[in-house]
Amino acid sequence: MDVEASKTVSRRDSNVELDDDGRIKRTGNAFTATTHIITVVVGAGVLALAWAMAQLGWIAGITVMIIFACISIYTYNLIADCYRYPHPVNGKRNYTYMQAVNAYLGGTMNVLCGLIQYGKLAGITVGYTITSSTSLVAIKKAICFHKRGHKARCKFSNNPFMIGFGILQILLSQIPNFHKLTYLSTVAAITSFGYAFIGSGLSLAVVVSGQGETTRIFGNKIGPGLSEPDKIWRVFSALGNIALACSYATVVYDIMDTLKSDPPECKQMKKANVLGITIMTTLFLLCGGLGYAAFGDDTPGNILTGFGFYEPFWLVAFGNVCIVTHMVGAYQVLAQPLFRIIEMGANLVWPRSEFINKEYPTKIGFSFNLFRLTWRTIYVVVATIIAMAMPFFNEFLGLLGAIGFWPLIVFFPVQMHIAQKQIKRLSLKWCVLQLLSFVCFLVSVVAAVGSIRGISKNIKKYKLFMYKQ
Q: Transmembrane ranges (predicted)?
């Protein structure tokens, strides 16, 4: 029994409403699940999709975005059907992705899933620390360029901003569990629309004014500034960026675990999957297409932090404020499942420890726990130090994402679906599902290779803790 379950059981005699498994009754719905999905998926990476579009061109870029959206809706719906075992509606709840994999595929797959899932979550929190500091520096640079001219030398250290972001996350990390994140997640989802529309709007203004650059059906042209090998590497990276942008598998069961049981969680989650991924894809196409139309071959890696725009400086700065606000909420949405699994494990190993299990109520509505305070603080501090030491960690993050894309979004859902529906080996449906899995495996390999190349190039030229943007 985990920490939360033991607390609910101890309250059986109180007025707290309980679910069918003795836990506190859940109140989430398809709308709240959609906000969680948007918070996780529509990250600052959406502003980098213009660069991906520039590498692939109009036909391949739009096609790839739509294909991966369709694959994501299908596989996430398979995951939703496996929330309960053995029946999607009346079975026993699986509280985590690992539990679902264990129920349908066994212990070995369970361990492999856990290593990939929580390793990726840890990496993403480091990446979000870097992204936030990059946007905070971009705000300072926008003001600097406005005052001193666009060619002024405006370089600033990311470290103070990472430290400030880390301190804020130490405080927010004391939120007890995922169920308490709805308001934070909603604010984060709203701000994600803010910076996506600011980036798209500024790009549209460039296009409408007639200052947009030349674009191509097949993307950037090979020539003096772009060799054929570099073009191939960039296409690999672009495919990986688009595929990995669709990922929220690491927290999908944590989102489902907030949904009320009537109507069935799987039905609500399927509706949230369709809504969330449709909104996500619309923003992807909007930002990617307009950004590419504005900058052509010179499309920056991020149209707000890469200074594709200088003016109006206040709008560029506000867009970056929205990014930081979103990262604050998204950090917690992704960190809470990691916090939860560690605390569940500690509770199982030391069930009688007051340090680990005793809760101290506070006047602001949250309970206080010494183990939670200590270990979550240490985690955020370590993640912040790693971000400061290696601010090119986005390449490492890309590698983690590449490793996680195929197993978490495609392989495990497909295999669980085959086990649940008892699909016969070598039947037509079995073969189609395995082909889908194999194609997505190749995409993961391609993205991983591109990330490894980026890591090797950065390691050669970087000094620890000395990065300035």
A: 30-52, 58-79, 100-119, 125-144, 156-175, 181-208, 274-293, 313-334, 373-393, 399-418, 430-452
> Structural domain of residue 109, as residue ranges?
3-459
**Cα–Cα distance for residue pair 55/288, rounded to 1 Å:** 11
Contact 430, 423 (CB under 8 A): yes
For the cut 90, the answer to whether the pLDDT of residue 359 exceeds it is no
Position 393 in a domain: yes
Q: What confidence tens digit (pLDDT) does each residue in 135-177 have? A: 899 899 889 888 888 888 888 888 899 999 999 999 988 877 6
Asked if residues 194 and 46 have their Cβ atoms less than 8 Å apart, the reply is no
Q: How far is CA 251 from CA 133, 203, 248, 409, in A?
A: 24, 32, 6, 11
Please give the distance of CA 9 from its chain centroid, rounded to a whole number. 33
Whole-number Å distance between alpha carbons of 126 and 130? 7
396-425 average pLDDT score: 88
CA distance 115 to 131: 24
Q: From CA 103, how far away is CA 93, in angstroms rounded?
A: 10
Total-model pTM: 0.82
Question: Which candidate, 166, 116, 155, 134, places its Cα nearest to that of 45?
Answer: 134
3-state secondary structure of 28: strand
The phi, psi pair for 395, rounded to 5°, reads: -70, -40
CATH number for the domain harbouring residue 316: 1.10.4160.10
Tokens 């470290």 -> residue: 159
Q: Residues for the chain: how many in total?
A: 469
Quote the CA–CA distance of 126 and 120 in Å, as a whole number: 10
| Residue where the block lists tokens 């004014």 | 209
Residues 290 and 203 sit within 8 Å (Cβ to Cβ): yes
Report yes or no on 464 lying in a domain. no
Number of domains in the chain: 1
Q: Is 232 exposed, middle or buried (0-12, 13-18, 19+ CB in 10 A)?
A: middle
Say which range, 174-178, 192-196, 395-399, 455-459, has the weakest mean pLDDT.
Answer: 395-399
> Residue 28 pairs with which residues in a beta bridge?
259
Beta partners for residue 367, in sequence order: 361
What's the whole-number mean pLDDT along residues 374-395? 85
Determine, yes or no, domain membership for 319: yes
